[in-house]
Specification:
- Strand 1, helix 1 (about 20-30) and strand 2 form a beta-alpha-beta unit.
- The strands form four sheets. The chain has a six-stranded parallel sheet, with helices on both faces.
- The chain contains nine helices and twelve strands.
- It is α/β, with parallel strands linked by helices.
């Protein structure tokens, strides 16, 4: 399937009300060749195979931002999480296989074991350590099985943005309430701005339609690496706040129902095959994100 006779590309964005979904819509809004259908959870239940098939019909590219994202709740509700992150993705993949649409499925670093010391390659063996990761891996496998030529699993991690709750926003909100904060310094990852990922997803969709992007796994995370403590301190520094207000601590101080990987640093070699560069360094990305209106408002409140 390619663009229609008028040169328009028909995009379907699921999970359109979420942080990433809203950014994907914003990126596509700037593209005059894009005809976009945006569906929220209330509009489309991706666990309903018939509804998914009807929704996918007539589209060239499907960007799946719909997901069960409550990592801790998945520990006790794994079946429900897998229904969305696994079975729902299988329905999307099956519908795309029927019509020839390209599927960009947003996945996660949590499908990996998180015990490495060097960045995970796209081909690294999977081995999730929690229920959420297992549910997302079911979805990844469905895409690989049903769409070997037209399916793309884009793993991301440590996502933040203007729309919805996230770590960067939380740190700025707490700056206005507390003199100091204890933040975990023994988990390593790549803070990734959702808008930058949205731009990359749209770019990958275009490359996929043009036959320039091999199907498979791509790592949609920022370059470089840091810890949660490092991210908090850099957020404060860029916001004109004292980074020493952030005090390092260990994961043992914040016990959660779901185990978190200690190492979520991903490699980005796969982008070269699609003719695309890796995402920018996390610090440069953060600096640009903090200039957006929602973050500027939080920064202003924190400075008072």
């Amino acid at each position: 399937m390619t663009a229609n006779s008028a040169g328009q590309v028909r995009w379907l964005v699921t999970g359109a009300a979420g942080m990433l979904g809203q950014d994907v819509l914003a990126v596509l809004a700037a593209d005059p060749s894009a005809e976009v259908t945006a569906v929220r959870r209330a509009d489309l239940d991706i666990t309903d195979a018939s509804a998914v098939e009807a929704a996918v019909e007539g589209h060239d590219v499907v960007v799946n931002c719909a997901a069960w994202t409550n990592v801790d709740a998945a520990e006790t509700e794994e079946e429900a999480a897998t229904a969305v992150n696994g079975t729902g993705v299988r329905h999307l993949a099956a519908a795309c296989a029927k019509t020839g649409a390209r599927l960009l499925n947003v996945s996660t670093d949590y499908v990996l074991p998180g015990d490495a010391t060097e960045p995970y390659a796209e081909t690294a063996p999977t081995g999730p350590v929690n229920a959420y990761g297992r549910s997302k891996l079911v979805g990844e496998r469905a895409v690989a099985d049903l769409l070997p030529a037209h399916g793309y699993n884009v793993r991301t991690a440590w996502l933040y943005g203007e729309h919805g709750a996230n770590f960067v926003a939380t740190m700025l909100k707490l700056a206005a309430q507390r003199d100091s904060l204890d933040v975990v310094d023994d988990q390593h990852g790549q803070p990734t701005w959702s808008y930058a990922l949205a731009e990359r997803l749209v770019g990958l969709g275009r490359a996929a339609l043009a036959g320039q992007a091999p199907a498979g796994v791509y790592h949609g995370t920022a370059s470089g690496r840091t810890t949660w403590c490092g991210l908090a301190r850099e957020t404060y520094r860029l916001s004109g706040l004292d980074p020493e207000r952030i005090r390092p601590t260990t994961s043992d101080a914040f016990v959660r129902p779901a185990v978190r990987p200690s190492f979520s640093v991903l490699g980005h070699d796969g982008w070269a095959a699609a003719g695309l560069a890796p995402l920018p360094d996390w610090q440069a990305m953060l600096a640009e994100a903090l200039e957006r209106p929602a973050f500027r408002a939080l920064r202003a409140a924190a400075e008072r």
